[in-house]
Structure formats: structure tokens, C-alpha cells
Amino acid sequence: MANVIGRADEKLILQNALSSNRAELIVVYGRRRIGKTYLISEVYKKHICFEFSGMHKASYKDQLKNFNLTLRGYLSRSKDATDWLEAFYELQKYLNTLRAKKKKVLFIDEFPWLDTRKSGFLAAFDHFWNSYAAKRKDLVVVVCGSAASYLIKNIVRNKGGLHNRLTHKIQLMPFNLYETEQFLKYKNVRLTRYDILQVYMAMGGVPHYLDKIQTGESVAQTLNRLCFTKNGFLKNEFQQVFASLFDQFDNHEAIIRALATVRKGLTRNALLKKGKINSGGTLTKTLEELEDSGFVEKYLPYKGSNDALYRLTDEYSLFYLKFIENTKPTPHAVWLKMQAQQSYKAWLGFSFETLCIKHVEQIKAGLGIAGINSVHGSWIEKKQGSGAQIDLLIDRDDRVINLCEMKFYNSEFALDKKYAQEIENKRRVFLGATKTRKALFVTFISTYGLLQNQYSKQYVQNEINMEHLFLNL
Q: Are 153 and 22 in a shared domain?
């Protein structure tokens, strides 16, 4: 498994399944290009006894034909099944020919695509697991797919025959910064951590995107080639992402577009209006699917409104809508010119905040409070004349609240009088609105740290730089 970067917890779950004394049913889900198939294939490459994958938008007839052809490759005398019940019966006959006592892995990839309308696939799989596979202590059955909402509804939260049958679930998320750095080193791509931050803010920690970075290219060259040339890999990826994940993806895209226009997030009602979605029920389902797939995060503001906010957390989607979508393909160095625009600075600020929120555990470790119970969130005060917003705060059980300021900058950041007064105003408004009796520590999170001057010494109690964001936890 030397070729699998990161994924320590996920690898451990998969490995432990091989040594258990029971049958295992494992579901692995996550967005397109996240590396689900690669992880399973690498960890289980010496143990897979049968591997089969659904086909995107294929008919029931073609899916079944593909299964028959695949099984014939394992057992030449297998009979062609005419429905999924027969198909799984033929699979049982093949598995019965395997005499080795060691654990055997049955891997069904793109599981949701197999459950075509009126095919009976899910019921047949349910029967296969309960009547056969669950009784064999030497079987690990892994089902996988990008349609996270389908797998959660039909496997994880199944109300029928698969209820409580699942032994493990793995939601595969994008790489964090540490894993991204390790992956690029494995590819012999030598970028500074400042460069990696810029790459991450543009395409996130999606392994398949990162795999397209070439050694010897600068960040500007990489983004130009992948995002702004005619055949750039990320030029049209946005449309393909949602089309492959969701059958009716117009609402998903509308929500992503609406969230990309705001910094602090939107409530359900605001999304209904801004996204022009008619049905509240449709909105609920769509938001759940986007959350399950890792594009959107739902959170409650700290001691404020009871209305949950939804925030766009997918870096590539934001970068695409801000820069790629309305830029004509060109072989020239367009990204360097874009960096001079005001929209670039606004994107940097929002993206760095999102990145920091995703790495809050690294921030806590950098502050030396990893062992202290805490909650984190955002806070906003809208009262006229005293409005203030804190995008990240950490409320700790040791009677301290860290009020975090996040700043992406190309050198040490010099806090001036105006900015220092803004920070102090936030602290004062927060204290007045929440009436907290905890100590308030202003915590500055930046790339290269703060330049020490009278304002940083007076107004900032803690400091975190980008090195802390790369901690391996």
C-alpha cells in the first residue's frame, strides 16, 4: 500500500475487516475523482475475488449483460442471468468454488448506477447479503459509488432487509494540506507551502485534480494550463461533476451558484429566493445531497439565530465560478493578469478562511489546545451601528474563546492602526452581545506570521502561520 498517500483511518478500517471473524459489509462513498476505487483496489489488490462496476446511465439490460460478461471472466461455465436474483445466485455458485480459508473481497463499484428503474437490483443484493454473504465469515463485501445520497439512503439508513447490516462506512474526503503535500512529493512536484496553499484554494484536495500538476511548473503555469486553455482538464469539469453525481442536477448547480456569491453563507429561505428553487422539499433533498457529497457545509451561528447557514466549501466550484467560467480559453498567461484584479483579492480572503475552517484541528494543535474540549463556529452581529462578523471562533472548556482573524499574504503581515481598531471593535461588540465571562484571545492566522509592532503586541494574543496548517494529525 506504499502507493496510497494518507487515508490512515480508512486503510485501517479496510485492513481490520480482513482479520475479523465475521462477514463484513462496507460502504465507501465520496465525490467524483476523490480516489475511492483506487483506495479499495490498492488495499485489497491481493484479496479481491470478484470486482464489478456499474455503467453510467446504462439500461437494466446492459448492466446485467455487463455483469454476465464480467462473471464469465472469473467462471467460464457460469450461466447468463436474466435478472438480478439469478445474477447473484450465479455469483454465489462462483464464490462456492473458492476453497481458500482467508478473507475474500467482493467489490461492487458504482453501486448506485446498477439500481436502474424497476430492475430489482437493490432487493436482489439485499437477499444475497442476508441469505448468503452474511453467513460466510470469509467474505468482505465492499460497495462504492459517487452518488453519496443514494448510498446513505439505501445502505447506511436502509429501513428494510439491510437495516443495521452495515459493518463500516467510509466517507472519503479530499486530502488535507499535509496529505496534499505528501501526494505532490510522491509525484516529484516540488512546491513551497505557500504555493501549495494557492493550488489548494483553486482546486481543493481532490487527488485526481492534483495528479494533473506537472513537475517543473509554477502555480501560475499549472492553473493556466488546467483552467484557462481550450483542452484544460478543469476547464469544463464543473458541469461533469454534478451531472455524474445527481440525476436531476439543475437545483444542485443553482445552490452552488447562489452560495458562491456570498461570504458568510445563506439560510434556507435565502437560498429558496436566490437560487430560484420552488419547492421546499426539493431544497431539503438537494441540500442533503450536497452535504453528503462534501460540497456544502451546514452550521449554526454561534449563540445567534437558530436559522442554520449553508456555506460553499468546495474550492474548485468557487474558483470555477469566479474565474474560469467567463474567461475565454487562451494559450497566454491569463492567470497572472487576473491576480491584479480586485476579485482575486476577495477570492483569496474567502478561500483562505474556508481552508482554515477545514483545518481547525491543526489550528488547535498549533495553539497547544488539542486536548481541551472545544466547539468552533462563526458569529455575526447585524445591529445597526455596531455590526461585526467573526468567521471562526473556538470556544474552549478552559474558559477561553479564540477570536480568529485570517489573512493570506505573501510575506509577514504588518498590522496597522486601522486594522487593529477593527479587530478591537469586533472583540468589544462580541463581548457586549454575548455577555461572555470567558477570556477573549484574538488569534491571528496568516501565511508567514505577523510582523511584530506595537499593534500586534497590543491587540493579538495568539499567532498561527501556515506551517501549523500542514500538521499531520
A: yes
